[in-house]
Every structure is written in structure tokens, then in C-alpha cells.
Amino acid sequence: DSRFSTQISHLALDIGGTLIKLVYFSPNGDNCEDGSIVVGNNGCSVVQGRLCFAKFETRKIDDCLDFIRLNILQHSGVQHARDKFSVKATGGGAFKFADLFKEKLGIVFDKEDEMHSLVCGVNFLLKTVPREAFTYLDGQKEFVQIDHNDLYPYLLVNIGSGVSMIKVDGDGKYERISGTSLGGGTFLGLGKLLTKCKSFDELLELSHQGNNRVIDMLVGDIYGGTDYSKIGLSSTAIASSFGKAISDGKELEDYQPEDVARSLLRMISNNIGQIAYLNALRFGLKRIFFGGFFIRGLEYTMDTISVAVHFWSRGEAKAMFLRHEGFLGALGAFTSYKD
Ligand code: ADP
């Protein structure tokens, strides 16, 4: 059935440890959330429409199954695909949940490698989507036009539950060179334990209102309010994240949860920025693209990462962000459909 095989290429999934990301094609863009990408208007493609995005918490996978059933299968007049429907899937959940998707929806996963999908997703965005990459410094967002002939090499830092750092040298030419387990999952996990927040959005909202200096030990706290200028450390630089809690004589309950959330966000973002910079230095890479759902376009996070990269590299390396940061793997899996 030719209609079936066309529909098949309309959906790709990236099932991660925390979130499920969906990219799907919609001819008229119905029900698309913000950020959808118009495709097929350049004369190269026969189909015109929009690439739409959706995300679900992995622990609420039933919501995702319902969404696919309603918006993708039934929309195409299919109740249950009876194993005829195969979709591109990546991330650990492509293995873990393969049986569930087959049983509940009749969908069979055509698995794509996770790192490969990430890199394909970024390359696709940088090559085809205008105003995708931007820098964020001093509260200013500035879009960067990347010359296609001068794209490589670059460092891709994907901040999901954990963090992967990938050196990209070309289409399909890449190597995972580093990573850290202190990632978005750590921020959310520790944040839930320390502040009793129930969700990522709640934790972010709290962190907006907080002041990290209440709990972080600053250089000035150690030096009696002055800079340690000899080695270039200002009095406001963080000497030790959460360090004030040692001697404050306070219990967790005595701190405002917003201050705890702020220190935590700062600690995780700073650490990732620093490791990213060190790896960029290790391989002489000037451009670092940050992706993953941890960033969520959040100014404070981007600012912390940018300042860390700028500070440590003395302005040599540039931190860049992507508008579709959370959907890199899903987009890469989507682009792996052959026309
Ligand atoms: P993974 O593929 O490992 O699930 P993602 O790129 O989807 O990784 O990022 C997951 C991280 O994004 C979480 O650990 C959390 O820090 C952050 N995040 C952003 N938005 C949400 C949300 N709505 N719910 C849960 N985590 C979120």
C-alpha cells in the first residue's frame, strides 16, 4: 500500500531517559506547537508542509502513545497499524520500549544510532534552517549565520539527562570525546530532593527568583570582600558551590528553596561550560554548540555557560545555542528517511 509507506516517513522519535521527543510532518501544520519548521518551499521537495515537534515525559509514555494514536495514526485513517507501520526511533527507549509500541500501536521501530542522529540533526539545522544558531552574551541574543563551507570542525555538547561531548568533523564524521554524568538529570533530581519541587518548570521558576550568593562560597567571602586579582579572580567568582552551607549553622529548611535552585543551576551550567571549554581546547575547536532539553532557551543557563566558555578561553571559543536544541536526535532520525 503506497499510502502506508508515505505515512511511515512522517514520524521520528527520540526516547531519552527523561523525555520523549517527536518530530512529525504535517501538511497544513494543524496542532503544531511553536517552533515548527516549514519544509518543501524551496522547490527541491515535492511535499510542502511543516515539521512539528512534541515532547512527553518518558515516565508518562501513555500520553505519547495516545498522541500518536490520535494525531498521527487516526489522522491518517489508521486505527492500529498491525505491524505495517515502521518509524525511525533513536535514544535508549528505542530498545527499551520497542515491544510496547508494537503491542499498543502496531508500530515497529527502525532504530537509528543516538550519536549519529544527534550529529545529523545539528548538521541539518545548521545547513537548512535560517536563524537557527545564536550566541548569548550580556543579555543579548545574536543570530549567527554559519557558512556551510566553514562549518567543521565543531564541538557538540548535548545536555540531556547526562551530557555527551562530540567532536564533529563532517557529515557522518564524528567522535564522542567526552561527557559528564552531571547533567540535566542531576539538576532535576537533586533539585527535586532539595526543594520539593515537582517539575522541571517549577524548579526553573524558583531558580529565577533565587540568589546563589546565599549558599555559594564566593572568593570575596574568603578574602574578606576583596578580589584575588593576582590570579584574575573577582570577589564575586564562586570559590565553592554550596560552600557556605558548611559554616552557616543552617539546616536545609533554613534556606529559601529559590536560592538552592539558583545555586544548583549555576553549579551544573558552570561545570558543563568548563568541561566543554577544556575539550574544545584539547582539540583546538573554536565553536561549541550546546543542545539538549536542559537549556530550554533559558537565559540564565545560557548566560552561565557563555560566561564560563568566554572566561576560560579568554574570548577565543564561542558558545552557541540552537533554537531547536531539544529535538536534535529526533530531527536526525527524521532526516534519515530516504526520499
Ligand atoms: P534525554 O534524552 O536524556 O531525556 P533531554 O535532551 O530530553 O535528554 O533532556 C532532559 C533534561 O531536560 C532533563 O533532565 C531536565 O533537566 C530538562 N528538562 C527540560 N524540560 C523538561 C520537562 N518538561 N520535564 C523534565 N525535564 C525537562
List keywords for this structure.
Nucleotidyltransferase, domain 5; 339 residues; 24% strand; Pantothenate kinase 1; single chain; Type_II_PanK; binds adenosine-5'-diphosphate; 15 strands; seven-stranded mixed sheet; ATPase_NBD; six-stranded mixed sheet; disordered N terminus; alpha/beta
Draw up the topology in text.
Elements (H helix, E strand, L loop, with lengths): L1 H7 L2 E5 L3 E8 L10 E3 L9 E9 L3 H13 L11 E6 L2 H4 L1 H8 L1 E5 L2 H15 L4 E5 L2 E4 L10 E6 L3 E8 L2 E8 L3 H12 L4 H10 L7 E2 H4 L15 E3 L16 H27 L3 E5 L7 H15 L4 E5 L5 H8 L4
Parallel strand pairs: 1-5, 5-6, 9-14, 14-15
Antiparallel strand pairs: 1-2, 2-4, 3-4, 7-8, 7-15, 9-10, 10-11, 12-13
The structure holds adenosine-5'-diphosphate (ADP).
Radius of gyration: 22 Å
Level of helix content? Answer: 25-40%
Helix and strand run: HEEEEHEHHEHEEEEEHHEHEHEHEH
Q: How many individual helices?
A: 11
Organism: Brassica napus
InterPro entries: ATPase_NBD, Type_II_PanK
Protein name: Pantothenate kinase 1
Pfam family, one: Fumble
Question: Can you put this structure into words, describing what you see?
Answer:
- InterPro entries: ATPase_NBD (IPR043129), Type_II_PanK (IPR004567).
- This is Pantothenate kinase 1.
- It comes from Brassica napus (Rape).
- This protein is of the alpha/beta class and 339 residues long.
- Among the domains are: 2-114 and 328-335, Nucleotidyltransferase, domain 5; 184-215 and 255-322, Nucleotidyltransferase, domain 5, CATH 3.30.420.
- Helices cover 36% and strands 24% of the residues.
- It has helices at residues 2-8, 61-73, 93-96, 98-105, 114-128, 184-195, 200-209, 219-222, 257-283, 299-313, 328-335, and strands spanning 11-15, 19-26, 37-39, 49-57, 85-90, 107-111, 133-137, 140-143, 154-159, 163-170, 173-180, 217-218, 238-240, 287-291, 318-322.
- A 7-stranded mixed β-sheet has the order 8-7-15-14-9-10-11, with helices on both faces. Strands 3-4-2-1-5-6 form a 6-stranded mixed β-sheet.
- Strand 9 (154-159) and strand 10 (163-170) form a beta hairpin.
- Helix 5 crosses helix 11 and helix 7 packs across helix 9.
- The chain is globular.
- The two termini are 17 Å apart.
- The model is unreliable at 1-8 (pLDDT under 50).
